[in-house]
């Protein structure tokens, strides 16, 4: 007897969240404090951290070492790569991503926040909101992270002063709200001392809100992918051509969103051919229904030319196909992205050739104004781009689907990831007129 999707989803409560902030704001210390005070650290891990801290001349264990796992991170005292950690409390399970604070590693924050449902943005109470704070708030807004927590850290270094916290909270809340962040919760903490991280602080009786862990345990989780538009990117075509299965043809992959049922009428994109689902195989057995994020094999009633990168969707709810992609992007590579540049665009399981037709604007983080026609985007820039692809793409808007509304721009020469894009996502209208780009290709292979 198969269970319903509602029963399946209600059986687990998982929150994915990411930490972000400037250098030395205490992100790794906060994560270490969460792990330590929620009793999610093994004894041998604590002993290793204590030994490493002693070798560095520190009297007390440095909890940041619980997440700074790379040797270079420990030597330099900074976070370089995204550190993923799993822990659980009686109320909820968590997957956290501790992301770097250096400007040059903002690309890693994009990676960590891309699947997060909550972002914890740390601010040093002594420094207040700085440029990197605004950059991380902008990335969280662009990635449609539904919940943002402002953790004003190191309150012990400003004598736990309420006016300091109130001023920072007011400035950040106004800025994040202007970006369109739907929910902002400000919490004063000291990650080093443990104030308001897991246990309420005795030094800030003026604060009556939740601790960080209490908020993480109670914030509404909205990861029900079954409520989204049904999308199935084909990853692999299965044709065993064996004596046992002479006519078997199945299309394997992971359901990106929504629910698929046997007998449902579907469209195959970008061809637009229509057919019905004849069968669904999951874990070696035939099932009548499957939902995201299950990995399944779908069998169709008709023989249609389908290959890796095609998208199966309900016939009455299929996305439109296009070769002209307008998107907001975060440029993550050291080499700039320029108008006329030839790239590869990777969307779900499909990779196609493309040309950057235009870069209409670049976002200025200080005042959220749009700098028109910058000509290029450099590392960590956020801007608008127009891309022309060689083949049609079945691309949703990022607002409708974070899974099928996102894409990557890749350097065709060496496979380097250049840019993370969100189709249709933006903060506001571009100031000034769009410029016509000179995108004449040097050879016909790229001229489309």
TrEMBL record:
Q: Which Pfam families match?
A: GTP-eEF1A_C (PF22594), GTP_EFTU (PF00009)
Can you give the residue ranges of the Tr-type G domain? 12-226
In terms of CDD domains, this protein maps to: CysN_ATPS, CysN_NodQ_II, CysN_NoDQ_III
Q: Give the source's domain of life in one word.
A: Bacteria
UniProt KW keywords: ATP-binding, GTP-binding, Nucleotide-binding, Nucleotidyltransferase, Transferase
A single GO molecular function term of this UniProt record = nucleotidyltransferase activity
Broadest EC class?
transferase
Q: Name the Enzyme Commission number(s) assigned to this protein.
A: 2.7.7.4
Q: Which NCBIfam families match?
A: CysN
Its recorded name reads sulfate adenylyltransferase
Species this chain originates from: Streptomyces atroolivaceus
């Amino acid at each position: 007897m198969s269970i319903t999707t509602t029963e399946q989803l209600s059986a687990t409560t998982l929150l994915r969240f990411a930490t972000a902030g400037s250098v030395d704001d205490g992100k790794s210390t906060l994560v270490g404090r969460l792990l330590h005070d929620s009793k999610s650290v093994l004894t041998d891990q604590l002993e290793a951290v204590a030994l490493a801290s002693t070798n560095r001349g520190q009297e007390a264990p440095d909890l940041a070492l619980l997440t700074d796992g790379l040797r270079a991170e420990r030597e330099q005292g900074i976070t370089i790569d995204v550190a993923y950690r799993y822990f659980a409390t009686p109320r909820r399970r968590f997957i956290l991503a501790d992301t770097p604070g250096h400007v040059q590693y903002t690309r890693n924050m994009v990676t960590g926040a891309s699947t997060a449902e909550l972002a914890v943005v740390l601010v040093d109470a002594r420094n207040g909101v700085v440029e990197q704070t605004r950059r991380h708030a902008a990335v969280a807004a662009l990635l449609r992270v539904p919940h943002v927590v402002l953790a004003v850290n190191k309150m012990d270094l400003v004598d736990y002063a309420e006016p300091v916290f109130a001023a920072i909270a007011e400035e950040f809340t106004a800025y994040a709200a202007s970006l369109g962040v739907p929910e902002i919760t400000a919490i004063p903490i000291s990650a080093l001392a443990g104030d308001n991280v897991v246990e309420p602080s005795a030094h800030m009786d003026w604060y009556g809100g939740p601790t960080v862990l209490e908020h993480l345990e109670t914030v509404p989780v909205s990861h029900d992918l079954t409520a989204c538009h049904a999308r199935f990117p084909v990853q692999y075509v299965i044709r065993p051509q064996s004596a046992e299965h002479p006519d078997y043809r199945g299309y394997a992959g992971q359901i990106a969103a929504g629910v698929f049922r046997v007998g449902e009428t579907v469209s195959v994109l970008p061809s637009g051919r229509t057919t019905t689902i004849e069968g669904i195989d999951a874990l070696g057995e035939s099932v009548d229904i499957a939902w995201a994020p299950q990995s399944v094999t779908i069998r169709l009633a008709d023989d249609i030319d389908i290959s890796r990168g095609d998208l199966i969707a309900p016939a009455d709810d299929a996305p439109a196909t296009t070769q002209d992609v307008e998107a907001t992007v975060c440029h993550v590579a050291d080499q700039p992205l320029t108008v006329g540049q030839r790239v590869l665009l990777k969307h779900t399981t499909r990779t196609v050739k493309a040309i950057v037709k235009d870069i209409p604007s670049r976002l200025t983080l200080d005042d959220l104004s749009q700098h028109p026609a910058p000509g290029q985007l450099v590392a960590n820039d956020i801007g608008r781009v127009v891309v022309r692809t060689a083949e049609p793409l079945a691309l949703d808007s990022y607002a409708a689907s974070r899974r099928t509304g996102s894409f990557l721009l890749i350097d065709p020469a060496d496979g380097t990831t250049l840019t993370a894009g969100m189709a249709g996502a933006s903060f506001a209208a571009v100031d000034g007129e769009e410029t016509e780009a000179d995108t004449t290709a040097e050879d016909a292979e790229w001229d489309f």
